Amino acid sequence: ELRHRASPWQRNLGYPLAMLGLLALTGISVLIVCFHVLELLLDDAAMPRGMQDASLGQVSFSIFGSFGAALQVVLIFYLMVSSVVGFYSSPLFTRLLPERQDTPLTKIIGNCVSLLVLSSALPVFSRTLGITRFDLLGDFGRYNWLGNFYIVFLYNMGFAGLTTLCLVKKVSWAVQAELIRAFGEDR
Length: 187
Hints:
Pfam family, one: LMBR1
Order of helices and strands: HHHHH
Mean pLDDT: 80
Structural class: mainly alpha
Oligomer: single chain
Subcellular location: Cell membrane; Endoplasmic reticulum membrane
Membrane topology: Multi-pass membrane protein
Protein name: LMBRL protein
Family: Belongs to the LIMR family.
């Protein structure tokens, strides 16, 4: 119903641009993770350990300078939003979604706990995937499992594989449905 009430500009320009932006951010994050996997295979320094004497402002955290740092920030926000959307889209947690003017206190507490856990895991998540090397000065790299090559490697491969599979599935099914509809095979 909201799509039908949207203006032609929004339907013909806004939605496609938003979709292209989401596809671009997903593709960039998968490319960065794939590059990080290659880095893991070739160099032990790519492991997500803590920062050793890197003074803030003296060391660039991106090889692309300011543009790379801005891209890292955008990707971290994208991962944050996509993890929240994915969390609330999973069948186990759809009942946790708040309802307008009718949310019990236990649901509010459950939402607060869930968002706290997701936001606390985000720095370790982005660091393990190789999206950023910045520690947020919390020294998240001192966790013992972050030094285990196999865990970090499988985590990166799982993210890249599952994200690519999801992306291909969504895009190919949408294209396939549009082609079927365009050729009139849906009748």
